[in-house]
Every structure is written in structure tokens, then in C-alpha cells.
Write a structure and sequence with these properties.
The complex is a heterodimer of chains A (840) and B (359). Chain A has 840 residues and is α/β, with parallel strands linked by helices. Helix content of chain A is 33%, strand content 21%. In chain A, the strands form five sheets. Chain A has a seven-stranded antiparallel β-sheet, with helices on both faces. A seven-stranded mixed β-sheet of chain A has the order 17-18-21-20-19-22-23, sandwiched between helices. Chain A has a seven-stranded antiparallel β-sheet with strand order 28-27-24-25-26-29-30. In chain A, α18 (500-506) packs across α19. Chain B is of the alpha/beta class. In chain B, 25% of the residues lie in helices and 30% in strands. In chain B, the strands form four sheets. Chain B has a ten-stranded mixed β-sheet, sandwiched between helices. Chain B has a seven-stranded mixed beta barrel with strand order 1-2-8-6-4-3-9. Chain B has a two-stranded parallel sheet with strand order 5-7. In chain B, 55% of the residues are buried. The chains are: A alpha/beta (840), B alpha/beta (359). Chains A and B meet through β11, α8 and α16 of A and α3 and β17 of B.
Chain lengths: 840, 359
């Protein structure tokens, strides 16, 4: 007799968020979760999201129930019970979420009720992934190459290994507490110290030691798998720098250019094999090392969860990786995936192909810290040093690279070619062998000084292709330098991605005259659609990038459009929160029936998500790039961050309707120890000033005060444009207080626009949409209900007692600063936590 | 040097010449694959055609000994956006530019290839020429040129040859064989005899094959002499048979099905192909200008085994009464995904069965 097994279909899904941003975590999890919530709703699922990241956009989404709570086993269990959750999707939250969910499962008790289904990865696989050793054993069993490695529990065992393995060795924490970091040991002297340091980074106090494979080529492959084992390759990218430099710190390029089809097909097959070994439903990122001399391929890292490459591939290819991955996780087949109408009907099942080149360049923020007198190590190695990254899109490698350089370094003063002339020959050789953050310019400088391509390739383990490309760029720069005002030289330079600003410096003129020369000679960018079929099918493409060819595909959106200038790459300070604020702005403008056009080049934050805006320009954000888009779109208004003074002036000269996002070049300052900074937050609608709430800031933490503020206090304040502001003063108090005396406004305080991070935080703890209200104020659409809400918050503050905590970024590991760094001042991210003294 | 591409519809694209400075005529098509330019350029199925690569940078991996799909490329022109001059072979002297010079094939770079592809996807393939000067003469020449329909005769081997192994004896009938097929047969240690397509039933059967492969090849299957159909019709009843690409179209024709030209050819490797029996999907290199006409299929004789899920086209068929089957795509990869090489495993299983039953 047949026994019919009826499984109750899944209804309520919990997403575990990625937590605070840090090195290697730029908010991509939050962007991904935010993107997939509406489509899961439309498929009939109810969702919840738990995260402790105050900058999270996902937990504010109207398509979900958000929980701003510390990411602990108890809190996850509580939400599961409260919301009647029957399935958990941890893979969107990255490694932290996977570990937390693994832990929840381990601590599951019968009284907790039936165990919720794990989506994406089955519990047994989840466990293998968290314990890398088990995973790699299976990969070896399947016949794939990995580098010889072993896990040790103490110094003795580690030293024992030294007899069997030759230096260099890679040492990394087994089951790391934070993100994975690899350290390379070249010298015996360093061995004991590194092993003990790394042991401290492991949850289990174990260290994995492997043979280093420095110098090999690193290639990443991203694939999707559905429940029946159907696999699709989303794309692959290669790092210019060899293994030994952290992948995040390397220039990388997609599609892969310097590896043969045969090798790529093997990597594809191995990625599919690993996806099937794991039986995962969703996305898998495999990192490979390739030895060109022997043809050997090694699997070096397996990430069966969402990471930065997922979001980046989605932006680079136009293929909606996250929308598909979420549907695969809930059990749909690739052939059953449903996409919004904006996509071609077959997009989900066609492997994306690219007819453009994308270069990713890391962004380092060493200068910000050095400016405060702290010396840091700029040398690149296996530990990540970059805080963010920017993308450059073009139709040649040179164009994409030049645009990536311009995206990563708005102000290319320190990146200007001539700066390199000061580097001595000895230093140059040293830096070729021990690369620093100015890697690309140094390579160009070496070519300028006449080093041969093959000797440079030998010295750096960088493929000759890149040197030939850099030589082309050098030749173009030289010809530009020698022919001031020449239209042909200008055309060549623009085709190679150079900006008007850089050309103006070459020709000792201003960017306006370069712009005029370009227009007079019809050197105008043509915008190409970025879509996943490489021209095979007509797509309703809404993503564009500039190049200089014959056909332009971008037509103006309409006359009620607003161009929003994005924040660019994630930098120290307001990285994740800038993405948050820009996204809120896009969403609100869209709600108010404006057509929105975003310009940005950062794939990690949500700003480039296709559903957030009507059109996306994937471009650098220098004045010339913005002006070209403005020329093309002729928008109703342009929204510009307040720190872009030159751009604002240039746009106003053009007669554009400029709305300024109040923003300072935000260097997160903070109180000294034994001090408190008090911050009075206020909303200005262009006419009235609404005091909102006061918070107290002690090093590392911010708490709210339950104190009413007399609105008259702000009477003397002179504000230019609507927005959120902060009046700040310092007091020598090192305890948390519930009331504070207001200072003399005109003498003891200073004013600044509210940092985006604080907008995100206050929006959540005050439960009022401050970001959206600011947008409404900018365009004169603040309504009576808004005003009432704003007037009431001061007298009747009903806030969640959650502190804003600076994240505990491990600068000692990443940057090796010469003295202790206050992470409040150099913020990589933040999280919320209950007030410590009120816990329990 | 500036050179130009003229299309039959009068459209002109300009770029910089590379490769040979020759003027050629061919049918222009586009390819959306992101890897394997050397394999594609040397694939005999492109005899008489010019290829526009959607991949914007071509040549960055040099020219490799293991990436030849034929020793003499028969392609008529290569159009790219950006050309990389990289040599990766031992002599460090062979880049894509020199390779095309050597084979007297012109190339054009710095072309707005995306515009060209968007144009071709609307017009379908058409005649084209690469020239130094655009004038009436060049246009007249193009209009007057009749492209050959004898591509198979031009590219396939005129003589039999062997590629010995110690396994099953497989006869490959060459219509424009790509090396990838021989490479896979080598993996199976097959004892291979390649015969010209003008071979006869007698010649084939005298060699006592364990299995027969109808190879890939260029052009329209209907341009081949009727004898080919007769040959296939007889052989399919005697020995296990696998048709690939053009060979697949020939198997269909031999069994009464029609074959029709596609409005826009498809050359790439990103379309999902579904195996109907298992419903599973995979990806494979495709290069097709023709497909089997659905309506003409006699379901008493044949059934469909594979379909392209993008355009619904038939990608595989099997005979009901004989161990003969065929696929439109290239299961050998080269370039392209390897997940379809189970087709060869199926074939060798069929061959093993046949050998066992007839020993």
C-alpha cells in the first residue's frame, strides 16, 4: 500500500541578516534580502527579517516584518516563535547567519516545537560548510585538487606540521569568529606568533595551515543550482594580482580574459560538481587557483552563500542573481522562476553573457587614518585592507580600468600619474615585489621607465595581457600630453575613459574648455545598454554605461525625472549608511511618482537594485560624467551630496535645478574618553525647526535621552535648506545620563547635517520615516501628518531602548596601525545593542 | 589602417584592419560566447562566414596548439571591438593578428560591434564584404557575388584516414569535422576511421564499424547530394549512429523531416537545452543556421529528445526503430560547456550493446 507523505507547504520565512558592516562585509546581504522580499510576497510567502545592523534597509521594507535585535540564538528563537516561522533562509546573510543558524539548530530543544526547515542548504550541509575541513574532505573525495592543508589545535601540532610542509604557508582560523582572513608566512620567525594570533580568531581555537600557492592566477566562478540539480553559470571573473594578495584588494575583471575556454569549462564543471555535492539550492561562489605552467586547477574557497560577488555579478551582467537564488531556495526549479516584467521572459534560464568589460578596483581609506597621525601598513598581502570597491564599465579593458580608477578615486590628486615621478628606482622594484595600494599606477610607472613586459610579468606574476593594456594607456597619455587642444587626441583619450578633469590638468586648462572642445568636435558619449543577452534579444534595459562609439541606446526618461548622484564606493565613515540614505531617497521619490535616475558605481549597496529606480547609469561620478548624463536626460532636478561642492557649482552654472543632500565630508569624530558628546537632532522643513530627540555619545556608543526640548532653544539657528541636522556640544561626563542641561546655542555648540547612519538609526528606534520625510521636505511635499508627527516626537518620545554601537573592527589585523584605533572615529559599520546596564 | 565592412543591405561599419589585408566575401553572423575565440574561428562549420564577436575584447589568451578545431580556418572575416595582442605560445610570436595574417583572413577591430549585432539580429544573416574603400564598385561586387553552397566539399576531407585506438571501431563521416569530436573519441580510446562524405554504404560496412558518427559541418544540409541521404538511411538500420550538428540535420532529412533556415542564426553557449525524458537542463555550444521543421517530423519514425528552452527549437531526435540519434548542439564543447558530453556516453553504451548482441 502506498503511503502518501504530505509535507505542509512553507508559508513563513525568516531571513537572518548579515549583521554589521566590516572588512569584507559591505551590506551586500542586506541589499540582497531587501531585493527579494517583494517577489517572495508575490509568490505567497510571508517573511520576517532579523538583523542588528541599524543601517539595514531590509528590516524597514514594507514587504516584511523587521526585527532590529542582536543576532543571538535566543533572539532568533524568539522571532521564530513570535512569527510562527516554518522556514529559515540563512544563506542570504552570509557566513555569520550560517553560523548562527547552525548554532540555533544545535541548541534546538523539543519544547521549541518542530524544527523549521532550512532553506538553501540542508542542516547537515550547513554544518559541513561551517566546518571547512569536512567540506574540503568531500571535495577531495570527489577528485578535485585542493592545496594540502591540515587543522591543528595547538602550537605543538603546528610546529609538527612544519616538518612536513615547506614555507610559504597560509594560516587561517578554523571556524573563524569574524570573516575569514588568511595570513601568509614566508619566514620561520613569524610562524609561532601568527599561529597564536590566528588561534585567537577561531571559535574552536583551531588553525588551518595550508601550502601557500602564491603567484598563481585567481579566478572566481558564480553558479546557481536548483533542487533537481540543474545548474547555471552566472559568470566568472579573474584577478589581475596573483594569489598572495587578497582577492578584495586586487583589481579584478569580468568576463575572464586571459584564461582559455578549456580551463574555464573545467572550472565550470567543478563548480557544478561542488554545488551538487552540497545539494544546495541557490548561489555558490567557488574560488580557483590556476597554475598556467602545469595546467593545474585548485579549489581554494567554496562559499555556498551570498557574498559580494553575488551582488557584483548581478550588476555586472544584468542577471538578477538574488531574485533567482531566493526562488531556488524556496524550491522552485530554474525553469519555474518568475521575474518582474522588466526582464526578458527567458532571462532566468539563459546564462548571462557580457558585451562589455567591468573592472573592479578596491578602495583603500589609509589616508583618512594617516591624516590623524596614525601610521598604517599599506602593503598588500593575504589579509584584506580595502574597505570598499568601485566598478568601471567600458568596452575595452583600458576604458573600464580608467573608469574604475576614476570611480574609486574621485579626487585623483594622489592617483595622478606625475605623482609617481618621485619614487626612486629602488623603491619601485621594492613596491613591484611588495605591492601597495597604488599598484596600478606603479605598474604604469615601471613601463614608463622602460621595464620590459616579460620582466615585469616575471617579477609580479601578473599576466602579460595587463602590461600590454597599461602600455596602451601610457601611450595615450603621452600623446595627449604632447598635443594640447588636439581633437583627435581628445577623442582617443575619451575613448580610453579619461575624464575632462584629468585632460584639463594635462593641458593646463579648465574642464569647461575641454567640454567645449569635445562638443565642438562631436565627441559625445554614447550610452550602451547593459543587459544579459549581449545584444541577442531586445531587452527593456534600464542600465547603461557610457562609451564612445556610434550607437547610443539611452533615451531621456521623461521631463519629470530626478537624477540622483550616488555616494560611490564604500569608504570609511558613512559607507553602508550612504547607500541606505540614497536608497530611501530613490524609493520615496518613486512613491511620489517621480521617475528616478541613479548614477553610481558601487555594487555592494542597494542603490543599483533594478527595482529601486527607473534607470541606472553605471558610471564614475566626476563632474564630466555627471554633466554628460545631465545633457542626455535633461532632468527636472538633480540631487547631489553636499560635499560635492565643485559639481554643485558646475550644475548651477548650467542652470540645473540642484537639490543638495546635506552632507559633510564626514570624518566620524567623537568624544574623548571621560567625555560625552550630546547631540540634539532636529528636522528643518524649510520653515520650522522640529527638535526630535537628544542623544548622548560616549566613545563607541550612542544612547537616547528621554528629555523634552523647548523648541525655542533652536530659534537662533540659521539653516539654509530643509534637512536633518544636529546641534552638538561636549560635556565632561563619563556616565550615561537621562537629562542634560541645554548649552548656550551660539557659543558652546556646533552644527552639522545629520550623518546618514544616524538617520537610519533614528528612523528605526523612533519608528518614524525620517529619511523619507526629508525627501518630502526637499521637494515641498511634507504633509500635515508629517508635521504633526515631527511636533509630537519631542514631547512624547516613544523609542526603543537600543544603543548604537560602533563595530569592533580589527584594525590591528587589517592595517597594523602603530597605535590603538578608536572604532567610533574610524567607523566601518555599526550594530545595535540593548543598553548594557539594563540587560538581563 | 581604416577598413570597412559593407553589408548587403547597404549598411557600412568602419574599423581598423588587422589580420590579412585581403578583401573577402562571406555571410555575416554573430557569436555571443565569452570564451573560445580560437576554437570558433577554426571551426569548419564557419566555412564561408564572417563572425562578429559580442565579447568586446578578443585575443587576450593568444593562440594555443590545443585550441585548434581544424588546422586551416575557413572563416572569411573576424570582426571585434577590441583586439588584444598577446602571444602565449612557446615562440611568443603567434597572436590573433598574426594568426589571421598567416591564414589570409581579414579582421576588423574598433567596430561598434553591439550596434552591428543589434542590426543583424533584426535582418538575419546576410552577405558582407571587408574592403579598403567604400565605393559603388565595392557595393556592386558584393551584390554580384554569389556565395558558394559547396562549403562541405570545400572543408571536409577528400580522403579516408585513421586515428587508431584500442577500443570500439567508430567511423566518422566527415562533413566538416571539428577536432573536438576526435578528442572525445580519443578519451574513449576509440579506433577511429574518418571517411569522406562521398563514401558508400559498401565502403563503410566493409570496414565493419561498431558505430557511426555523422559529423558537424557547415552550410545548408539540403545543398548536399541526395546520395548522402540514401547513405544515412541505410546505415542507420545497420549500426548505431550518432549525428551531430549538420549530421543531426542529415539524419532528420534522411527520415523524411524537413529542415528550415532560422530567421536569425544562433551562435553561442548560453541557451538552456532540456532533455525531455528527465526534464533536466544543461548548456552546450550551439552554432546553427538551420533547425528541424517541427511540422514535418514523422512521429512514427522519430521522436524529439531535446529542446532549446529559449526558442523551443528541436535540439535532439531519436529513431524509434533503430539505435540512431542525433543532437543539434556540440556535446564535445571546444569551445563550450562539458555537461552535454553524456551524449557520447549514451552513444558508447549503445555501441557496446550492439557489439555484445552481434558478437
Amino acid at each position: 500500500m502506498y503511503k502518501k507523505i504530505v509535507e505542509k507547504p512553507i508559508e513563513n520565512i525568516l531571513f537572518i541578516g548579515g549583521g554589521e558592516t566590516d572588512f569584507g562585509l559591505q551590506g551586500e546581504s542586506d541589499a540582497a534580502i531587501y531585493q527579494v522580499l517583494p517577489i517572495l510576497n508575490s509568490l505567497g510567502y510571508t517573511t520576517s527579517v532579523i538583523d542588528d545592523n541599524p543601517y539595514s534597509l531590509a528590516i524597514e521594507s514594507p514587504a516584511t516584518t523587521g526585527f532590529l535585535r542582536p543576532l543571538t540564538v535566543e533572539n532568533v528563537k524568539a522571532v521564530l516563535a513570535e512569527q510562527n516561522i516554518d522556514a529559515v533562509l540563512p544563506t542570504f546573510g552570509g557566513t555569520r547567519a550560517l553560523r548562527l543558524w547552525d548554532q540555533v539548530l544545535a541548541e534546538w530543544r523539543p519544547e521549541n516545537g518542530p524544527v523549521p526547515t532550512s532553506l538553501g542548504l540542508k542542516p547537515s550541509q550547513l554544518h559541513q560548510v561551517n566546518d571547512g575541513r569536512l567540506l574540503f574532505d568531500r571535495i577531495i573525495d570527489a577528485g578535485l585538487n585542493v592545496t594540502a592543508s591540515a587543522v591543528v589545535k595547538n602550537q605543538e601540532e603546528a610546529s609538527e606540521l612544519l616538518r612536513e610542509m615547506e614555507l610559504p604557508l597560509v594560516v587561517r582560523a578554523h571556524q573563524p569568529i569574524q570573516t575569514t582572513t588568511r595570513q601568509i608566512i614566508d619566514r620561520l620567525d613569524d610562524f609561532d606568533q601568527v599561529v597564536s594570533q590566528v588561534m585567537g580568531q577561531s571559535l574552536t581555537h583551531e588553525v588551518s595551515i595550508a601550502k601557500a600557492i602564491n603567484g598563481l592566477k585567481e579566478i572566481s566562478v558564480l553558479v546557481l543550482r536548483d533542487r533537481d540539480g540543474n545548474c547555471l553559470k552566472v559568470g566568472s571573473s579573474e584577478d589581475m594580482d596573483p594569489i598572495g594578495i587578497h582577492s578584495a584588494d586586487s583589481l579584478s575583471v569580468a568576463p575572464v580574459l586571459t584564461v582559455s575556454d578549456q580551463v574555464l569549462q573545467q572550472m565550470r564543471a567543478q563548480s557544478f560538481l561542488i554545488a551538487n555535492l552540497l545539494g544546495l539550492q541557490g548561489v555558490l561562489h567557488v574560488q580557483f587557483a590556476f597554475n598556467e605552467k602545469t595546467g593545474d586547477i585548485y579549489v581554494i574557497k567554496v562559499s555556498p552563500y551570498l557574498d559580494q560577488l553575488t551582488n557584483r555579478m548581478a550588476v555586472m551582467t544584468g542577471y538578477p542573481v538574488m531574485l533567482v537564488a531566493a526562488q531556488l531556495a524556496v524550491g522552485k526549479l530554474l525553469t519555474e522562476v518568475v521575474l518582474p516584467n522588466a526582464f526578458h521572459a527567458k532571462t532566468a534560464i539563459m546564462e548571462p553573457v557580457m558585451d562589455h568589460i567591468v573592472v573592479k578596483l578596491p578602495v583603500f581609506s589609509f589616508g583618512d587614518m594617516e591624516a590623524t597621525g596614525t601610521q598604517v601598513s599599506r602593503q598588500l598581502n593575504s589579509v584584506q585592507k580595502s574597505v570598499g570597491s568601485a566598478l568601471g564599465f567600458g568596452r575595452t579593458f583600458v576604458e573600464a580600468m580608467e573608469k574604475a580608477i576614476r570611480s574609486a578615486h574621485f579626487n585623483n590628486r594622489s592617483f595622478a600619474p606625475k605623482y609617481m615621478a618621485d619614487v626612486s628606482d629602488d623603491e619601485l622594484i621594492q613596491q613591484l615585489i611588495h605591492p601597495q595600494d597604488n599598484r596600478v599606477l606603479l605598474l604604469i610607472e615601471a613601463l614608463r621607465r622602460g621595464y620590459e613586459v616579460d620582466e615585469l610579468a616575471e617579477l609580479t606574476n601578473i599576466d602579460e595581457f595587463y602590461f600590454y593594456q597599461l602600455k596602451r594607456l601610457l601611450a595615450i597619455e603621452l600623446s595627449v600630453d604632447q598635443q594640447p587642444g588636439d581633437a583627435e587626441a581628445l577623442k582617443m583619450a575619451k575613448k580610453s575613459g579619461l575624464s575632462d578633469g584629468l585632460l584639463a590638468r594635462f593641458w593646463r586648462t579648465d574642464f569647461q574648455s575641454i567640454r567645449q572642445l569635445a562638443r565642438a568636435n562631436d565627441i559625445i558619449p554614447t550610452y550602451k545598454a547593459l543587459e544579459p543577452s549581449a545584444g541577442e534579444f531586445p531587452e527593456h534595459a534600464r542600465q547603461f554605461f557610457a562609451t564612445f562609439e556610434e550607437e547610443n541606446e539611452s533615451n531621456p526618461v521623461c521631463d519629470r525625472s530626478v537624477v540622483i548622484i550616488g555616494p560611490g564606493a564604500f569608504r570609511m565613515g558613512d559607507g553602508a549608511s550612504a547607500g541606505y540614505m540614497t536608497s530611501v531617497t530613490l524609493s520615496e521619490l518613486h512613491r511620489l511618482k517621480y521617475k528616478t535616475i541613479i548614477m553610481n558605481n558601487n555594487a555592494a549597496d542597494p542603490t543599483l537594485l533594478p527595482h529601486l529606480s527607473d534607470k541606472q547609469y553605471l558610471e564614475p561620478l566626476e563632474t564630466s560624467d555627471v554633466m554628460s548624463v545631465i545633457d542626455r536626460e535633461n532632468p527636472h532636478a538633480v540631487l547631489v551630496p553636499g560635499n560635492r561642492k565643485k559639481l554643485i557649482a558646475a550644475l548651477e552654472d548650467l542652470g540645473q535645478n540642484v537639490i543638495v543632500f546635506p552632507k559633510e565630508k564626514h570624518h566620524p569624530a567623537g568624544p574623548e574618553f571621560s567625555q560625552s558628546e550630546f547631540v540634539l537632532n532636529l528636522f528643518y522643513d524649510g520653515k520650522d525647526k522640529f527638535p526630535l530627540i537628544i542623544f548622548q555619545h560616549q566613545p563607541g556608543q550612542i544612547r537616547l535621552l528621554d528629555q523634552e526640548i523647548n523648541p525655542n532653544f533652536l530659534a537662533g539657528l540659521d539653516l539654509q535648506s530643509p534637512g536633518l541636522y544636529q546641534v552638538i556640544w561636549r560635556v565632561d561626563i563619563n556616565q550615561w545620563v537621562s537629562q542634560v542641561d541645554l548649552p548656550n546655542l551660539s557659543i558652546d555648540t556646533w552644527l552639522r547635517p545629520m550623518p546618514y547612519g544616524h538617520i537610519a538609526y533614528l528612523t528605526k528606534v523612533l519608528k518614524m520615516p525620517l529619511g523619507r520625510m526629508v525627501v518630502r521636505a526637499w521637494i515641498g511635499q511634507l504633509n500635515a501628518a508629517d508635521r504633526q508627527l515631527l511636533a509630537e516626537v519631542n514631547t512624547n518620545p516613544n523609542f526603543e531602548r537600543l544603543a548604537l554601537m560602533a563595530s569592533a573592527t580589527d584594525y590591528a589585523l587589517h592595517w597594523k596601525p602603530d597605535h590603538w584605533v578608536d572604532t567610533t572615529r574610524f567607523e566601518m559599520g555599526a550594530r545595535i545593542a540593548p543598553y548594557a546596564d539594563e540587560e538581563g | 589602417m581604416e577598413r570597412h565592412l559593407i553589408l548587403e543591405d547597404g549598411t557600412v561599419f568602419s574599423g581598423q584592419g588587422f589580420g590579412a589585408p585581403a578583401t573577402t566575401f562571406g555571410e555575416i553572423i554573430f557569436d555571443t560566447a565569452m570564451s573560445g575565440y580560437q576554437e570558433t574561428i577554426t571551426n569548419p562549420i564557419y566555412d564561408g562566414q564572417m563572425i562578429v564577436f559580442a565579447m568586446p575584447v578578443v585575443g587576450a589568451d593568444g593562440i594555443h596548439a590545443e585550441a585548434y578545431e581544424s588546422t586551416t580556418p575557413k572563416i572569411r572575416g573576424v570582426i571585434v571591438h577590441d583586439l588584444a595582442e598577446v602571444s602565449t605560445n612557446r615562440q611568443r610570436r603567434m597572436n590573433l593578428d598574426r594568426f589571421l595574417q598567416h591564414h589570409n583572413i581579414p579582421g576588423l577591430y574598433e567596430v561598434d560591434t553591439r550596434k552591428l549585432i543589434r542590426h543583424l539580429r533584426e535582418t538575419g544573416p546576410q552577405k558582407a564584404t571587408i574592403v579598403d574603400v567604400v565605393d559603388d564598385h565595392a557595393v556592386d561586387q558584393l551584390v554580384a557575388t554569389v556565395l558558394t553552397n559547396k562549403q562541405v566539399q570545400n572543408t571536409a576531407t577528400p580522403k579516408a584516414y585513421a586515428n587508431p585506438g584500442r577500443g570500439f571501431h567508430i567511423i566518422v563521416i566527415d562533413f566538416g569535422l571539428k577536432h573536438g569530436i576526435l578528442r572525445v573519441l580519443g578519451d574513449y580510446d576509440a579506433n577511429v576511421t574518418v571517411l569522406p562524405f562521398t563514401t558508400t554504404v559498401d565502403e563503410v560496412l566493409t570496414l565493419d564499424p561498431d558505430g557511426i558518427i555523422l559529423s558537424t559541418g557547415p552550410g545548408n544540409p539540403k545543398d548536399l547530394p541526395d546520395e548522402v541521404s540514401t547513405l544515412v538511411r541505410v546505415l542507420q538500420t545497420k549500426v548505431p549512429l550518432l549525428g551531430l550538428g549538420l549530421g543531426h540535420e542529415l539524419l532528420a532529412l534522411a527520415n523524411g523531416a524537413g529542415v528550415k533556415a532560422l530567421p536569425a542564426e544562433y551562435h553561442g553557449m548560453n541557451h538552456p537545452i532540456q532533455e525531455i525524458i528527465s526534464q533536466s537542463i544543461f548548456y552546450a555550444r550551439q552554432g546553427r543556421g538551420y533547425v528541424i521543421d517541427e511540422e514535418s517530423l514523422d512521429s512514427k519514425k522519430l521522436f524529439v529528445t531535446h529542446r532549446d528552452l529559449v526558442d523551443g527549437s528541436i535540439q535532439g531526435i531519436r529513431l524509434r526503430n533503430y539505435p540512431a540519434f542525433s543532437v543539434q548542439f556540440f556535446p564535445d564543447g571546444a569551445p563550450g560547456p562539458l555537461e552535454a558530453n553524456g551524449i557520447f556516453a549514451d552513444f558508447f553504451e549503445t555501441v557496446a550493446d550492439y557489439v555484445q548482441k552481434n558478437s
